[in-house]
Design brief:
Helices cover 34% and strands 29% of the residues. The chain has 146 residues and is an alpha+beta fold. Strands 2-1-4-5-6-3 form a 6-stranded antiparallel sheet. A hairpin with a 4-residue loop joins strand 4 and strand 5. Helix 3 (92-105) runs antiparallel to helix 5 (116-124).
């Protein structure tokens, strides 16, 4: 299935957030992640600011060797997203506010690297939604020098 998103996209799950660079990344998870509700009633924002509610994710198939199973009996899977268009377009500032609110919720985690205030400052100074998402992707995937 092809989704109407302008990548990268930001997904606020029930724990935190994640940035996905393309559809392949977005629709691949583990069976444990799906069962834990990572893709149930969460918000997805694309790089143009359009927002969707992800009602749920549904397993399509296993991915990889042995149909995605590993030695821990977890399975890497491909999912299909059930979406509801919220018909809203968010501004860069409102997305920044939501990200900062989320960062503050897990402040102890982000402070463990000693750079919480710097992260917030960089988020506040982003000039585009794509730039913000790129920074968050690099931060979350430890590709950022912070």
């Amino acid at each position: 299935m092809t989704y109407p998103f302008d990548y990268p996209v930001l997904l606020f799950d029930k724990y935190s957030f994640n940035v996905y660079l393309n559809e392949d990344e977005l629709t691949q998870t583990t069976s444990a992640g799906l069962k834990s509700g990572l893709f149930t009633n969460v918000k997805l924002i694309d790089s143009t600011g359009k927002a969707w509610k992800v009602v749920r994710g549904k397993k399509v198939r296993g991915v990889g060797l042995f149909r995605g199973y590993n030695i821990f009996f977890n399975q890497k899977i491909r999912i299909e997203l059930e979406l509801k268009n919220t018909k809203s377009e968010l501004s860069l500032d409102s997305i920044k506010q939501e990200v900062i609110k989320n960062l503050k919720k897990d402040r102890h985690f982000w402070e463990s690297g000693g750079s919480f205030e710097l992260i917030v400052s960089i988020v506040e100074n982003q000039k585009t939604i794509k730039g913000l998402f790129k920074f968050l992707y690099e931060l979350w995937n430890k590709k950022s020098p912070i």
